[in-house]
Design a protein that fits this description.
alpha+beta; Aminopeptidase; 7 strands
Length: about 200
């Protein structure tokens, strides 16, 4: 079971270095290829863009290493000073292509651009530290981060998975429904067979 790590320390991206987050993402595989751009770049552009271009966009979104910067695209998690995790968390309006993912905003009478709603869209755990509770700890940190910055509601878009199933990162980089439920999120929409919209209202 993926339970939160009490000794993980999460800091906003602007308080971590670019080298820290790149250590988490690695140089190959899904995280390195996407660089948390899935909901920020139009679908065809996202799938066709070279990883270097998406990485450059990601780097521009946060003033890495500048603790005085006002915004960050997410949090970097550390264990004993070693960067081990990432979670993308920002106001929902930072993700213009969420609306293309059939997340039922209109059915709920909401605008994507509502600044009071924050979204948690992506988790990455560094190779060698997986299955140790990093992503659950990062989720808890993301909730606190959003609340501290005035979020009226926090959303996630996790996948339904079977207990004990080995699911590839390509499906669960958004998190699992069980993880979000443990933090008090409740289902508010079920836009596809296995994807939920889950919401926490402080």
């Amino acid at each position: 079971m993926d339970l939160p790590l009490p000794d993980l320390v999460a800091v906003p991206g602007n308080e971590a270095s670019w080298a820290d987050v790149q250590a988490v993402f690695g140089q190959r595989g899904g995280p390195a290829a996407c660089s948390c751009q899935r909901f920020k770049v139009p679908g065809r552009m996202h799938w066709e863009a070279p990883p270097e271009e998406l990485r450059a966009r990601f780097r521009m979104e946060t003033d890495w290493g500048n603790p005085h910067a006002g915004t960050a695209a997410g949090l970097v998690g550390f264990l004993d000073g070693e960067p081990v995790g990432w979670v993308a968390v920002e106001p929902r309006l930072a993700y213009p292509y969420l609306k293309r993912q059939r997340l039922a905003l209109q059915e709920r009478g909401e605008r994507l651009e509502d600044p009071g709603v924050w979204s948690i869209t992506c988790f990455v755990t560094r190779a060698g530290f997986r299955r140790r509770g990093v992503s659950s700890a990062m989720l808890r940190a993301a909730v606190g981060h959003a609340r501290d910055r005035g979020a009226r509601a926090i959303e996630g878009y996790p996948m339904l998975t079977e207990e004990g199933a080995d699911v590839p990162w390509g499906e669960t980089h958004v998190g699992t429904a069980r993880q979000f439920a443990r933090e008090g999120f409740v289902e508010v929409a079920h836009p596809t067979l296995r994807r939920l919209v889950m919401r926490l209202e402080p």
